[in-house]
Write a structure and sequence with these properties.
Structural class: alpha/beta
Radius of gyration: 20 Å
Number of domains: 2
CATH class of the largest domain: Alpha Beta
Distance between the termini: 51 Å
CATH architecture of the largest domain: Roll
Shape: globular
Largest sheet: 5 strands, antiparallel
Number of helices: 14
């Protein structure tokens, strides 16, 4: 059976993400700051056209949000899919005008450092508890490229470190430059990642990632480390399922972007027998529905009408 051209699929999917419906969360009547921030839950629903601003359709946080709509009996509500960038642009525009908005959110993310936000309480625990971001590599990588496998296996950092790179990018610093600066300023930690790994001369390292700010940051940081170790690094942005498929089929060496157990749980079940899990590279991650602090709602149940 012919293998899927995952890179082409990812690029086509990336282009399709730019076709986002304009005005989501800001075009309806009653969307002003006076009505959106302090009115009843019904007013919030009406002002948002009962729309939750999501990211790409393959993301676990979107699927969990769709499940939450069902579990909480929010029949009129719908999760509108777009992309991570489109979601944060909608959020930024709404906050600038102090309008209501509900987005699919996750931590780590620069938006929590830049804006005053809160997760809506989830008494039914639809979104689950703490998540961890895992590193996944293709089977046989340890034997084929032992130095690459060792560095990827030893890669680990925390949310505040990741968010510092994300914020620099958000503030206009090119991601390659932000990643390189972080690596320079954290030489001791980087040395732990490369401990026991020999430098190489042009060995290929192919990594895939999704277009989330968190994974753009982590992938570029580890890519910079690998380049300094002598690897010829290629990083490719694709969609969630394509990312897992690329590693499973051996078209990519690995990824540092697997959110478990919830966000990428379905992808993990589909591909767990075809990839090697090197364990978490970041702990304390979280997903859920997120709103600005000025909105007078605290729980997903407040969205009922």
């Amino acid at each position: 059976m012919m293998k899927t051209n995952w890179k082409r699929v990812g690029l086509i999917a990336g282009l399709s993400l730019s076709l986002v419906a304009a005005g989501c969360g800001s075009s309806s009547e009653g969307g002003s700051s006076d009505e959106g921030s302090g009115e009843s839950s019904a007013s919030v629903g009406e002002s948002l056209n009962h729309e939750i601003t999501g990211i790409d359709s393959g993301a676990g946080v979107v699927k969990a949000s769709e499940k939450a709509v069902e579990e909480y009996g929010l029949e009129e509500w719908e999760v509108q899919t777009s992309s991570g960038g489109a979601m944060t642009e909608e959020l930024s525009n709404a906050i600038e005008d102090e309008e209501p908005i509900i987005v699919t959110g996750w931590t780590p993310h620069w938006k929590f450092a830049k804006y005053d936000l809160k997760y809506l309480e989830d008494p039914k625990e639809v979104f689950g508890g703490e998540e961890k971001i895992h590193t996944m590599v293709k089977q046989g990588l340890k034997e084929e490229k032992p130095n690459l496998n060792k560095i990827l296996d030893q890669f680990s950092w925390d949310a505040s470190q990741m968010e510092s790179v994300m914020l620099k990018r958000k503030d206009g610093t090119p991601i390659e430059e932000a990643a390189k600066k972080w690596v320079e300023e954290n030489a001791d930690q980087v040395s732990e990642w490369t401990k026991g790994a020999e430098k190489v001369d042009g060995v290929e390292a192919k990594l895939v990632y999704v277009s989330w700010d968190s994974e753009i940051a982590s992938t570029n940081v580890i890519a910079e480390v690998l380049r300094q170790q002598g690897f010829e690094v290629e990083i490719t942005q694709v969609q969630n399922a394509t990312m897992w498929q690329a590693v499973a089929e051996g078209e990519a060496d690995g990824m540092v972007a697997a959110w478990l157990p919830g966000t990428h749980g379905e992808n993990y079940e589909n591909f767990k027998d075809q990839v090697t899990d090197l364990g978490p590279n970041l702990e304390g991650a979280k997903i859920g529905l997120v709103v600005p602090e000025y909105m007078d709602i605290e729980s997903i149940e407040d969205l009922k009408e």
